[in-house]
Amino acid sequence: MKKAKIIKWIAGIYGIVTGISAWSLFLCTVKRKEKKDWENQTAEPGSYLELIQQKSSWIKKQKIEHVSIPAFDGLKLHGIFIPSEKKSDRVILAVHGFRAEGMKDFSAITCFYHEQGYHVLMVDDRAHGMSEGKYIGFGCLDREDCYRWIHYLDEKLKERCSIFLHGISMGAATALMTSSMNLPSSVKGMIADCPYTSIWEEFIYLAKREKKPLIFMYPVLKLESKICKVMAGYEFDDCSAAEEVKDTKLPVLLIHGKEDRFVPCEMSKKIYDNCAAYRELWLVEHARHAESYHIAREEYERRVLTFMEKCDTK
After folding, report:
1. pLDDT band for position 3 (50/70/90)?
2. Each residue of 14-36: pLDDT tens digit?
3. Which of 3-7, 126-130, 186-190, 251-255 has the lowest mean pLDDT?
4. In sequence order, what are the residues at sequence separation of 6 or more whose Cβ sits closer than 8 angstroms to the Cβ of residue 61?
5. Domain architecture of the chain: domains with CATH
6. What is the pTM of this model?
7. At 233, is the secondary structure helix, strand, or coil?
8. In 3D, which of 104, 122, 125 has the Cα closest to residue 113?
9. DSSP code of residue 123
10. CA 98 to CA 128: how far, in whole Å?
11. How far apart are CA 53 and CA 45, in angstroms?
12. Which of 65, 88, 96, 291 is 20 to 30 A off residue 102, Cα-Cα?
C-alpha cells in the first residue's frame, strides 16, 4: 500500500509540474507580447540594426499606404504597401519572423526591391505589430492570412501582376505552408530565408539544444500543443512546411545561414529534398539566424533577382 501511495504521489507531482511547465511555455511562446522598441534602440555603427533603422526611416518618408484585411476568424490584419515609383506589375509579399513585424524584418531589403521597381507589401502577422490577435499562429494560422493577402494583392493590381512571397524564419515557414494551397496564377515563386520544417520539430530542436531531458520535455510540449488547440485553435503538428512543399508547383529559393543555431540549416535541406517543384538552396557562410542579407548583401540581392527572373519567364 505504501508503495502504491508513493507512486500516486510521484505521478501527481509529475502531472502538476508538467501542467505548470506547459502553461508557462504557452504564455512564453504563443501568447502575444508587447513589441520591443527596436526603432529607438542604440545601434552599433555598421550593425544590421543600424541599417534597419536607417532604411525604416527612409521608408516612412515615402508615399506608403497603410492597408488592412479581415482574417478568416475576423481579426484585422495590418500591412504597409510601398508602391513602385514607376509602373510595375511585380510585387513582393514580405512575411516577417517570430515576435518581429514587417518593418523590422524587411526595411533593408524593401529599399532594394523598391530601387528595382517592385511594389512591396510588408505585413504584420496576427498578434504582431499593428495586426490584431492574442496568439501567434506559427504558420498554422498565418498560412490562411497569407492566402488572403495574396488575393488582396491580386485584386489591388487587377490580376495583372507577378507576386513573389519572401519570408524570414516563421514567415518563411508560413510562405512554404501556403505553397500547396489553391493560389492564383499570379503567384510566381517563393523566397524562404531560414524556415523551420514545423513548429513541433523546431520546439523539439530547441529543447535538445538547451539540453533539456526529452523524457520530461516531450510530454510538456505535447500538453502545450493541446493547450494551444483550446486557446488558439491549432496544434503544433497541424501544418508542416516540409510536408506542404511535397504538393507545390511553385519555384522555391531556400536561403539559410550555416551558423544558424536557432533554426538549423538542416531544416532547409529537408524542405529542399521534399520540394516537388523547381528549387534552389543557398547556404550562407558565417551567417547566423536571419543574418544572411546582412552578411552577404550583394550576393543575396543577385540571387533573389536572378531567381525571380527565372520564375517570371516559366
Report:
1. low
2. 678 889 999 999 999 999 998 77
3. 3-7
4. none
5. 1-30+199-238 (no CATH), 47-198+239-312 (3.40.50.1820)
6. 0.94
7. coil
8. 122
9. E
10. 9
11. 11
12. 88
Query: How far is 102 from 174, CA to CA, in rounded Å?
Result: 14
Whether the CB-CB separation of 142 and 95 falls below 8 Å is answered with: yes
* Half-sphere exposure for 165 (CA within 13 Å, toward CB): 35
d(CA 174, CA 143): 5
Give the residue-averaged pLDDT of 202-227: 92
Cα separation, 178 vs 137, in Å, equals 13
- Strand pairing partners for 193? 168, 255
Cα–Cα dist 287/300, whole Å:
12
Cα(95)–Cα(166) distance, rounded to whole angstroms? 6
HEC string for 287-300: CCCCCHHHHCHHHH
C-alpha grid cell, residue 172: 518563411
Instruction: State the average pLDDT for the chain.
Output: 93
Half-sphere exposure of 58 (CA within 13 A, CB side): 15
* Residue 115: per-residue pLDDT: 92
Q: Per-residue pLDDT averaged across 190-198, rounded?
A: 98
Task: Tell me the three-class secondary structure of 172-203, residue by residue.
Answer: HHHHHHHCCCCCCCCEEEEEEECCCCCHHHHH
Residue type, 100: A
Q: How many CB atoms lie within 10 A of CB 87?
A: 7
HSE, CB side, 13 Å, CA atoms: give it for residue 102.
28
Average pLDDT over residues 5-10: 65
Query: Among 185, 161, 188, 162, which Cα is nearest to 175's?
Result: 188
pLDDT-derived band of residue 6, with 50, 70 and 90 as boundaries? low
